[in-house]
Amino acid sequence: MTDVSVEDITEETDSPAETTxxxxxxxxxxxxxxxxxxxxxxxPSVPPxxxxxxVASVADPEPVAEPxxxxxxxxxxxxxxxxxxxxxxxxxxxxxxxxxxxxxxxDAVESIRERAGAGARRGPRGVSAHVQERxxxxxxxxxxxxxxxxxxxxxxxxxxxARTVSRMLGMRVVEVNVNVDDVRLPGEDHPExxxxx
Length: 197
Known about the structure:
By secondary structure, the chain is of the alpha+beta class. 22% of the residues lie in helices and 23% in strands.
């Protein structure tokens, strides 16, 4: 059984004519008869909330200026696709069960870019991103470690890439596609790289 009591608080002012009694935030005493050794819990009363501060009305000729925390500067911010790709690559490699980034379609696109004379790709291998305004779509190719559940690893990569890109770059991630290109077997350090002439 719980006892609850509400106390009336008398508010007195300088003038005896303005003395009022009102139910204000109250003291709450709780006691339980089943636990005799526990003292009653008392919650102190809370002071009343301050009154509402009036804001400039429509009829006022000068509006009230609100304090500004930081100055607003006009301009555009553009984040390059390569920046999103690097952040995405690091986020994918953080996940347990990811041995390396895969090649995916990146190698095919890279060879076409080189033949067309567009220059070498600056972003990491296995990741491509498309930035439009403040949204981004990311494709990640990974190599999974043997012994890990591939679908769980891929889902964790998708979640971690979206969370990291959103947090670090302040962009809305609309899509993360994960391609599992290969599985790294135990004892296999790195895939054999072709010898460069």
